[in-house]
Amino acid sequence: MSHTPPPTPASGERARPTNAAPPQPAEGSTPGQVSTRRLPSKTTRKRPPRWLRMALIAALGITTIVLALFNLPRSPGSPYQPLYFASNRESTTQVYRLGRDGEITTMTAAGGSDPAVAPNGDLYFSAIRGGKLNIYRLGQNGAAYQVTGGGGNSQPAPAADGVLYFTSNRDGSLEIYRLDTTGVTIQMTNSPDGADSHSSAPVANGSLYFVSDRDGAEEIYRIDSHGGVTRMTFSPSGSYSNQPVVGRNGVLYFVSDRDGSDEIFYIALDGTVVQLTSSPAGKGSWQPCPASDGSLYFTSDRNGTAEVYRLSPGGAIDRMTFSPPGRTSEQPALKIN
């Protein structure tokens, strides 16, 4: 299977082309028909008064501006599929959807975070309701259906086979659980005493990436379909690696502070670790979200507060969200086709 390399870091913007509709024949006319109406001669034609000509010019200018606004490309790098994210732009943290036209829609009514989109398009999120943290699924009718019970459940990670992985502290420490399509929940990880396992990222072959501090600092591990656990990252002393995400081509993306601040990396098929983002001094980039078109969405505070950005395959970085002052937007989520 051919491998599409992840995007390379750079800067810049790309404009999206617009399509103009073909001209239509005037009302009451037939395409190709030649008018036989006789025009008045030059001696009888009267020039409109100056005030009327100026009014017509002004009206034409306003019409041109309005048409241009309707045909302007939207925010640079607008997603080719709905982009979900969490934001406290309206005080309470909610899950929002950014459409291709730049329109922002509130998806949750009573708070929500950790958005995750299943391959079938279902939206999962975490929310505290009734004093307990659980995972919900947003139905096509806009209603939220609770899918976990007991509280302490978060970080939903839906898989292609309809299975939902999530993190829970129901047994004291954080562990990864699996909820199958019949409603049966199975514990997937068993961390050593005092350690946690969280932030799962399912793979198409049935294996699962997750984060654990079982060897000291947080590192990324993989558990295969037979239960075998393999350590995937080896961060320098004093640093960590977390937030694993699997791209469409099977590439593992993650976040690490191995170079001083949080940046996004990926592991190439030959095992090489490649850095994708380079944030300004004192800033960081985290929460990678690979798209099916080869671009990468992520969260960064490079402009002051946390916002969602897009790194195109060509290296251009576009800002996707613009939160009100003092507010943030983060946790980008896309459906992986």
Describe, in short, the structure shown.
By secondary structure, the chain is mainly beta.
Descriptive notes:
The protein is mainly beta and 337 residues long. The chain has a domain at 233-337: TolB, C-terminal domain (Neuraminidase), CATH 2.120.10.30. The protein has one helix at 50-71; strands at residues 83-90, 92-98, 104-106, 113-117, 123-129, 132-138, 144-146, 153-158, 164-168, 175-179, 185-187, 197-202, 208-212, 219-223, 229-231, 241-246, 252-256, 263-267, 273-275, 285-290, 296-300, 307-311, 317-319, 329-333. Strands 3-2-1-24 form a four-stranded antiparallel sheet, with no helix packed on it. A hairpin with a 5-residue loop joins strand 22 (307-311) and strand 23 (317-319). It is globular. Mean pLDDT is 83; it is low at 9-45 and 62-79.
Topology:
Blueprint: H1 50-71, E1 83-90, E2 92-98, E3 104-106, E4 113-117, E5 123-129, E6 132-138, E7 144-146, E8 153-158, E9 164-168, E10 175-179, E11 185-187, E12 197-202, E13 208-212, E14 219-223, E15 229-231, E16 241-246, E17 252-256, E18 263-267, E19 273-275, E20 285-290, E21 296-300, E22 307-311, E23 317-319, E24 329-333
Antiparallel strand pairs: 1-2, 1-24, 2-3, 4-5, 5-6, 6-7, 8-9, 9-10, 10-11, 12-13, 13-14, 14-15, 16-17, 17-18, 18-19, 20-21, 21-22, 22-23
